[in-house]
Amino acid sequence: MTSAEEEKQAHRLRTLEAFVEDECIPAERVKEIKARTGSRWSEVPAVMEQLKLRARALGLWNLFMPPGHPGTQGVSVSQYAALSEVMGRSTIAPEACNCSAPDTGNMEVLAQYGSAAQQAAWLPDLLEGRIRSAFLMTEPETASSDATNIACRIRRFGDKYVVTGRKWWSTGAMDPRCRLFIVMGRMEGAEWDARPIHQRHTMLLVPARSPGVTLERALEVFGYDDAPHGHAEVTLRGVEVSADAALLLGEGRGFEIAQGRLGPGRVHHCMRALGLAERALTALVRRSRERIAFGRPLCDHDMVRRSIADSRMELDQARHLVLDCARKLERSGGAKGAMMEVAMIKVVVPNVACAVIDRAIQVHGGMGVCQDTFLAAAYAHMRTLRIADGPDEVSAPVVLQR
Amino acid sequence: MTSAEEEKQAHRLRTLEAFVEDECIPAERVKEIKARTGSRWSEVPAVMEQLKLRARALGLWNLFMPPGHPGTQGVSVSQYAALSEVMGRSTIAPEACNCSAPDTGNMEVLAQYGSAAQQAAWLPDLLEGRIRSAFLMTEPETASSDATNIACRIRRFGDKYVVTGRKWWSTGAMDPRCRLFIVMGRMEGAEWDARPIHQRHTMLLVPARSPGVTLERALEVFGYDDAPHGHAEVTLRGVEVSADAALLLGEGRGFEIAQGRLGPGRVHHCMRALGLAERALTALVRRSRERIAFGRPLCDHDMVRRSIADSRMELDQARHLVLDCARKLERSGGAKGAMMEVAMIKVVVPNVACAVIDRAIQVHGGMGVCQDTFLAAAYAHMRTLRIADGPDEVSAPVVLQR
Amino acid sequence: MTSAEEEKQAHRLRTLEAFVEDECIPAERVKEIKARTGSRWSEVPAVMEQLKLRARALGLWNLFMPPGHPGTQGVSVSQYAALSEVMGRSTIAPEACNCSAPDTGNMEVLAQYGSAAQQAAWLPDLLEGRIRSAFLMTEPETASSDATNIACRIRRFGDKYVVTGRKWWSTGAMDPRCRLFIVMGRMEGAEWDARPIHQRHTMLLVPARSPGVTLERALEVFGYDDAPHGHAEVTLRGVEVSADAALLLGEGRGFEIAQGRLGPGRVHHCMRALGLAERALTALVRRSRERIAFGRPLCDHDMVRRSIADSRMELDQARHLVLDCARKLERSGGAKGAMMEVAMIKVVVPNVACAVIDRAIQVHGGMGVCQDTFLAAAYAHMRTLRIADGPDEVSAPVVLQR
Amino acid sequence: MTSAEEEKQAHRLRTLEAFVEDECIPAERVKEIKARTGSRWSEVPAVMEQLKLRARALGLWNLFMPPGHPGTQGVSVSQYAALSEVMGRSTIAPEACNCSAPDTGNMEVLAQYGSAAQQAAWLPDLLEGRIRSAFLMTEPETASSDATNIACRIRRFGDKYVVTGRKWWSTGAMDPRCRLFIVMGRMEGAEWDARPIHQRHTMLLVPARSPGVTLERALEVFGYDDAPHGHAEVTLRGVEVSADAALLLGEGRGFEIAQGRLGPGRVHHCMRALGLAERALTALVRRSRERIAFGRPLCDHDMVRRSIADSRMELDQARHLVLDCARKLERSGGAKGAMMEVAMIKVVVPNVACAVIDRAIQVHGGMGVCQDTFLAAAYAHMRTLRIADGPDEVSAPVVLQR
Question: How far apart are CA C379 and CA C280, in angstroms?
């Protein structure tokens, strides 16, 4: 980085830190209370739109988009990694900055693999935060840890595709603003069955309100339904889409896109997770100073000190690993050059985040498992990261000796 | 045991196993659906009353009550331990058998420490399952890991006590059937402050609907509110109770009761937890046989096999430890004779249960964290056991070398 | 047990405890010093023979031999388990009581599978402790975790077998008193290659000083050579033995013997390991009371208390598991009835023993890793148990869900 | 770094890598065999002197010395960190490059705190590798985890100090080339007792062969005596030294020196440990590819793959942490600016190194615990790092939240 770039990044970080601490975190409770009352699934709490206006005003909008793509602010993978950690401290800051999953990944896919017409159709609204999108990959009937199992059927009829399948964990699909699905499915037909296993799947752009789409139900994560965003189970029954408008990159190239989507996306995900875990550690330390047991504040008990120390050591190590991965992705210009690093952070970070948050819960006692802090919900969501996009058991073996 | 007793116990176990597997577990979903709709906090799903009738008819009622006490079925601590494990497999079987916390502990306290009048006032309705009760110990403002911190104030005025304080995690206090609170508080007055730290607290029987009692709110456990039973935050503002009717055992003897309540209660708790964890392991194994990834069922992957093996080894060891504790409690006729064992199972079992359930979640993937199985809620509740009644960090050091 | 048997067992335990604490443990240092000087490999320190005389006089001789076999003292598997734990506290007590591996397993094999002539040839001297024996199973060239890999060749010529192969970790083979090897090898010939994989191996009795036997070298365990007993690498080059005198049970039945040898043997091994780990915990506690750091004895530091608590919890659980395995072996009259339990203790106990001893080393600081305590050597030897007879990775998967 | 510096460092790394792999590692066995025979404690195997000549010729001599000090090659802390990792792969490379503990730390102390006369007296011979030195800190009678316990007495008489005490773990004190001790002791006298606890100790230069010095014995590390270098127990009985020649920095300033010695020293130590652990991982991977069990090479078993992955993830994270610490030390110009980082690497690295080497041992089976690989000795020595310079339990709590 030149020193002008460094200064710009430092300024962004400072601005973002203040925004997250002073505006987003205090608004979390407001959002939550709104989300508990009234029309939980049909209304987005107003505070979100206010925060989005603030983020735009502060120049904290669409920071995720890599240089060279529409809407970019010219932030590199490494720079965005640092910003992601700060955003991740708050459960609502990413959305406030239009940097929340799965929209970020979806916008990157459009920018990288979409045709001009596809980009024109969807990107402006997404980049403005007017609509949202979902990514329909995982299926209830197949072990998604092995993504070649994906069975949702795509068949071509002339200039149309017909899609039939059942998806779940489609985060954001129930959001009242959601308009676009990116759907991964398997091409039907004998010629496709004969192809190599990673060349049978296709990704399609499917308008969320297409005939044949049913939002079956909202999945809960350890009791949290995350309304109004939520995690949907969705069926597609003979959903028809125009081939030109829908086909991304090419038939049979779904895995190619999935792979490209994963690299920087995982860096973002991991940095947000570390941000949340850092917030948990801050809460742990604060609590341990305030609370007295057996005549001493908790922070003077060796076991609590060890909890703090272990957390600090694990978080610092994990962050170094993610930042190193970000630098390698940047240098190699794609996930290919850092496959092992991407696999490593996928395994390391969710485990570290869960461990740190779990310790913070323990030190908070009963307060830690209930709605009085962000900790229990944070744990629940971090726990899903050990499963999402393939479990530890699948990622770990990728990490073979250099 | 004589062989007649052995046969009786074997019969009870078989009957209970069938009841739990064939009637309770299938009813869990029914209860849950009911509890999600309509008047969540004011109505108990009808299926519960039906199961209670069945349990009575099958002779599976009030099994927890030790020999020599009202309502007892003559089941020893060790025998009840085995029955608890079976009940624990289902989240609703304990209530169906009138053997659910905190009523069991409360009934034992009444039976052991209550006057004849106190017993007459409360025990019949509790033993019949017509009313429920809560135990008001933990407080939001103090570190309950050190119970001598308990600050709820009790002051004597003539033949009355006036109680003022704030309690939380009062499980069952919001249940529409709840009528009785057992409240732990600290005696006010200089003469009490001068007493040894474990002789300042008193336990009182407080009618749940006394003037001055406010149910502030329902606490959630990782997103679950457990309606209609729930976990309440309760304030007592100048609540007046008649001294004779309220005072348990004697002023300043609260810790004595708390201690007595803990021994067998922990055995029950732990065995229920192991039952739930065994159910999780059964689910893990079943899933691992059905699900295919990378060309083989999951149970043919070494990592999954190791998960199963570790779970089996941990559960078997933990069970042996609890059963050994039960035998020692039985032999010594009280918690005093098995203090170390009681501390050990308090630490070991919740950790093992969490570990096993967590592995089962992992093998279930996305299904494991949502409402489609009992696993996520089971994890959340087992997690609280590492905190309730004192965290690991407090219990572990009790376990000093014999 | 009848009460007479119980009294007898209680008496044995008391006698053994006194013998181990008052005579064996103090003699360890003497033995070690002797073993460090003079003819390390050709002389057994005299103190061993003195202890053996004492053990015989005290009725503590050959306790391992199961009822119904030559030399038995009528001790059941469960009873011997309890005695093994006590013996295991001292590194020399098992030999003092003629109950040390590998002789115990070898004597059991002779008693169970040997012909009358084979028994007559070897058992009297072994039972008297006049000679010792070794078990030649593991090989340097093959992964012994999968015992079907064993490649030492056995070929029949008329009434002779000729054995050629290389073995290692032949514990005791270098002992100046060693006279007998039990050798596992694979039958040569096409008809044998066609047999099922577990029916190709044979066990032979081979006199230790047969022509063609070379003791290649002593293997060290983390720097300890365990002279004069030691762990040998042995080559057999065309070693000829008389078929009648050598063949155990039958050609191709080697795995049958190996399996039978494993059940009770593992119980013994595990209980001895627990005894040693208990001694380490006693040392840990004692040291933590004597040593002052930061103004308090170590035992007043939470971390040390947690070390003690974890050790106590792990040891008690492991012991319950082993004793349960012993009862099941007894009841089923063979390893078949308790395969899973035998696999579980194989994994659990060495890991627990290593963990406990490692904590004891940590609390001893520099003293813990050097020759001033038994701890470092104890750790080294316990560590090998995670490898010997198959590593954790092989045993664990045997533990499938019941 | 300028690009000329970068090129220089890259060249040094390449040269060192070749020297370590091609010359040092093959010579380890030679050195070991020599050290096992003949006059173990009085002779240094000749191969060491040959390697030292080679290292000098290759410009790999005294790389540790920081810029601005005598003998320096101008290598920064970060650069030396990278070089340390490479040297650490071989157990003899550090000595070959005159970069082995405790001489490196001792030379740094002389360079930083020694008077001109003291430097002239000792540095040339040390820098040439003609003599060696020891650091006498730890004592058998006191818990050295709390260094203020150090009790060796120093009393001033006119222009002399008299030193009396017992030290142990004085690594290298028995080396036939050892000429200098740096001794930490406590000033005697009431005025010293009145001082703050960290201002009572003094460091003295004591000629190794002073009257009153006795080398009591060699301490073993898990059975390894590390002759001829070794770890000595040393008594000093009324050892007299000239005050001018002996006093380092000033009376009562011992802790100041100890602190300064620790920062970069720990970085070196940790990087060497990571180098050794990397070598263990390389061995693990190689072995897992060669060895077949259950029909597949070990590296195709999930558990082994997970071992490799965990090792890779832990090593990479630990290395990032140490390199970050090195950069902070460099930037702050002293240990003060990176106290937390220095504490963290002290805890993290030995644990990671032990874990990785332990896994490598497991995959090697019996070969891993004996003298056929470097693994068992490596484990033993890494294990001592969890104790040396203060155990984990002391270092961890230093790591408080930033």
Answer: 10
